[in-house]
């Protein structure tokens, strides 16, 4: 489940150490966002 209403930017100063690396899921994340926006 992807909650598009929670997609936002955050100031760099509130970010701490990375918890996980999601770059391996880049294509899947982009495809999911594209599907939510276009429905295709």
UniProtKB/TrEMBL annotation:
Please list the GO biological process terms of this entry: plasmid maintenance
Q: Which InterPro entries match?
A: CcdB (IPR002712), Plasmid_toxin/cell-grow_inhib (IPR011067)
Q: Name a Pfam family for this protein.
A: CcdB
Q: Which domain of life is it from?
A: Bacteria
Q: Name one GO molecular function term.
A: DNA topoisomerase type II (double strand cut, ATP-hydrolyzing) inhibitor activity
Q: Which UniProt keywords apply?
A: Repressor, Transcription, Transcription regulation
**Family the entry assigns:** Belongs to the CcdB toxin family.
Q: What is this protein called?
A: Toxin CcdB
Source organism per entry reads: Aliivibrio finisterrensis
């Amino acid at each position: 489940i992807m909650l598009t209403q929670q997609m936002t930017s955050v100031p760099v100063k509130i970010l701490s150490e990375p918890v996980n690396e999601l770059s391996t899921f880049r294509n899947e994340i982009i495809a999911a966002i594209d599907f939510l926006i276009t429905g295709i």
